[in-house]
Amino acid sequence: MHFHSDLILNAFIILLPLIFYRLVYKYKNPVFVFLLFLVPLIITMTFPVEVFNSVLDLRGIPLIIGSLYGGIYSSFLLFGSLLAYRQILGGIDLIHYMIALLPTLVLILFIIKKFAKANSKKKMLTVFGICLFLRTTVVNLYYLLEGDANYFTDSFVASLPIILVQCIMATILVFMIETIRNNIQIQEEIIKTEKMKVVSEIAASVAHEVRNPLTTVRGFIQLLSDPTLTDRKRKEFSCITLEELDRAESIISDYLSLAKPQNEKLEPILLGKALVKASQILSSYANLHNVEIIINYDLPATVIGNKSKFRQAIINIGKNAIEAMPDGGKLSLKYVTDDHSRSVTLTICDTGVGMNSEQINRLGSPYYSTKDKGTGLGTMVIFNIIRGMNGHIEVQSKKGEGTTYLIRLPLHN
Ligand code: ADP
Ligand code: MG
């Protein structure tokens, strides 16, 4: 029976949205979801499979799942496209078909808000139920409207097994989508947890840095209370006092900007500014470890990404570099743009202990760490964030000489 190959083709096309689901999750755009499910909808309608004298068309699966995951706009667009394309295919009473579809659309719109908040199990059950509802109401209503009152007993009951197969396929698809979603969510959680760990680890050095200006301020206030002080000296002292307080303030606000909750926005990032900001946040930590930070770049360059995530990646690399230089050293951040390939190469270089090739290869895998309190999540997060920006990382290192991170990112505009 040759329907098997058609069936497998159809089943495969239904799975198509899974491949691109990560993108949908990233951009969270209803039009994107609509387009993603429109393709299988059109293809399944164009190539229906005939099984046991009844037509197995899987159009209901992308229709239902795309509507429930995409939201109200996506639902209307998908139902509209279904009707429009059905009209193009011809041989149908469009008004009757529309009326037959209406109960399902209403049901979907009714539960769409609850669906978004439901857990995976509930989502699977819901899709199974709606699939069954759709397949039951649409054909029976349609033939009833067409005047064929015997359709239910003549044909529908016989096609029930096929309908159940379809509902099960829809449920499996939801299961897969949910697995992907959970995976993405776990990755996001790791990024956040890792950030909080960095925040707590550099807290001590920030506190230490703030203490210095405070001690200075204290000394000058003592001097100011001397009644024999000339006006000129008094002015000079209060000037220094204010400068030191400003310094303390800027150390604290840089630190707080790291701890601030992040949004998910993708935006143009000025690379030079991002490097300066990251180095400011790291400066207390660097000072405590006798590390000098050097920034170098010529032309301004812009890349696309999430600002705070990108900064987190730079800070993680810089923090590792500082930790690799227990006796102090130099941490250099620079970039060069390449107009020919429309890319920018960011180089983060340290003069620390370095790694051998086996250690380099293990970078990025969780739990690989050579530190007492290390987790190995730092580099995993770095790789994740840079990959999310369509970037590429290469690590060069020599034991005892230092490590260089080369990050290539596509240029914006
Ligand atoms: P952690 O810092 O918690 O150990 P990371 O994922 O940030 O976890 O780093 C993993 C390991 O990679 C570190 O323990 C260290 O051995 C090595 N490493 C990372 N960056 C450098 C570097 N710049 N120089 C030397 N070793 C490094
Ligand atoms: Mg680290």
Domain count: the total is 3
Ligands present: adenosine-5'-diphosphate, magnesium ion
> What distance separates the N and C termini?
55 Å
Number of strands: 9
Largest sheet: 5 strands, mixed
Number of helical stretches of at least 4 residues: 15
Indicate the radius of gyration in whole angstroms.
31 Å
- Encode the helix/strand succession as letters: HHHEEHHHHHHHHEHEEHEEHHEE
Short description:
This protein is an alpha+beta fold and 413 residues long. 66% of the residues lie in helices and 13% in strands.
Features:
15 helices, alpha+beta, five-stranded mixed sheet, binds adenosine-5'-diphosphate, 13% strand, single chain, Heat Shock Protein 90, Helix Hairpins, two-stranded antiparallel sheet, 413 residues, binds magnesium ion
Walkthrough of the structure:
With 413 residues, the chain is of the alpha+beta class. It folds into 3 domains: 2-190; 201-259, Helix Hairpins, CATH 1.10.287.130; 267-410, Histidine kinase-like ATPase, C-terminal domain (Heat Shock Protein 90, 2-Layer Sandwich), CATH 3.30.565.10. It has helices at 3-19, 21-27, 30-46, 60-70, 72-89, 94-117, 120-145, 151-156, 160-201, 203-224, 231-259, 271-288, 307-323, 357-362, 377-388, and strands at residues 49-51, 54-56, 267-270, 291-297, 302-305, 329-338, 343-350, 392-398, 402-410. A 5-stranded mixed sheet has the order 4-6-7-9-8, with helices on one face. The protein has a two-stranded antiparallel sheet with strand order 1-2. It is elongated and about 110 Å long. It binds adenosine-5'-diphosphate and magnesium ion. Residues 316, 319-320, 378 line the site of magnesium ion (MG).
